[in-house]
Amino acid sequence: MNSEKKQANIELSCTEIGGLWGVYFQESMSSCFLTYFLHHLQDKEIIPLVKESLQISQTRLEKIKEIFLAENFPVPSAFSEGDLNLAAPPLFHDYLP
Length: 97
Description:
Blueprint lengths: L13 H27 L6 H24 L27
Helix pairs in contact: 1-2
C-alpha cells in the first residue's frame, strides 16, 4: 500500500472565479472606505474596531490574490490607494455635537 497522499489539482469553476472576483472588488472598496474613515475618525472608542476591520479586509484581499496567482489567473485592478483622497472633507461625523 502506498501511504503517500495524492493531491488532486482541481481548477476553479467559472462561478467560483466570478465569486472571488466580486469579493475582491468589495474588499478593496471596504479597505478604501475604512482607511478614509480611520483617517477622519475622532471617537477613540471606535478606532480599535475600525483598525481590526481594515486588517481583516486587507487579509482577505491578500488571500484572494494568492488564489488568483496560484491559479495563474489575472488579479483584478480593483479599488486602490489611487482612488482614495484623504484630504477630502469628511462626509460624516462619528460624534454628536
